[in-house]
Design goal:
Blueprint (H helix, E strand, L loop, with lengths): L3 H10 L6 E6 L2 E6 L2 E7 L2 E4 L16 E2 L8 E4 L5 H14 L6
Antiparallel strand pairs: 1-2, 2-3, 3-4, 4-6, 5-6
């Protein structure tokens, strides 16, 4: 379970990406940018979808992947959440790559 204060901090760090929010799901959080689910915040870690467009943008320490919870597909684990520009760039990149959800 993630600390709600850390979740708020990550949302604030990613704010330059667009309209960023987090919603509680299954005991942890889903991170949204412009209405698109871009990642997860689980056990106090930021996980972003494993998109090839992220690879050249990632710091070396963030290139490892692991599942955010049992049974999930591996995601990038973003450890450098204190760099606002970096986090915003990554979140924005994921949001731009994902298709708009049809209603």
């Amino acid at each position: 379970m993630s600390d709600p204060d850390l979740v708020t901090y990550i949302v604030e760090q990613a704010a330059q990406a667009g309209e960023v929010s987090a919603k509680k799901m299954f005991g942890d959080y889903c991170l949204y940018c412009d209405g698109k689910p871009v990642g997860l915040i689980c056990d106090d870690y930021l996980y972003l979808k494993p998109l090839k467009q992220l690879e050249p943008l990632l710091h070396d320490c963030d290139k490892k992947m692991q599942p955010p919870y049992d049974g999930a597909k591996p995601h990038y684990v973003i450890t450098d959440v204190d760099d606002r520009d970096y986090v915003s760039l990554l979140v924005k990149t994921v949001a731009e790559v994902l298709p708009v959800k049809r209603k």
